[in-house]
Amino acid sequence: MSVNPDFVAMTALELRAYVLAHREDDEALQAYLDKLHREQPKSRVYQPDDDVAGAIAEYLKNKKQ
């Protein structure tokens, strides 16, 4: 009998490695995708007439960190 690791306690990087090593484990894949979805910042859709200068500056500032 095999016991699944604690996917909640694993980091996204650890989960990714686990999923790649256990490609048949659908539960691990779902846990990985859920974690990525929670950790990724929400993106915003801009309209053509929106002023995006502030958003670009913020993105570039965060990218340097």
Verbal overview:
This protein has about 60 residues and is mainly alpha-helical. The protein has one domain (about 10-65). Helix content is about 55%, strand content about 0%. The protein contains 3 helices and no strands. The chain has helices at about 10-20, 25-40, 55-65.
Question: Characteristics of this structure?
Answer:
mainly alpha, 65 residues, 0% strand
Helix content: 55-70%
Low-confidence stretches: none
Tell me the overall shape.
Answer: elongated
Individual helix count? 3
Kindly name the structural category. mainly alpha
Blueprint of the fold:
Elements: H1 12-21, H2 26-39, H3 53-64
Task: Briefly characterize the structure.
The chain has helices at residues 12-21, 26-39, 53-64. By secondary structure, the chain is mainly α. The chain contains three helices and no strands.
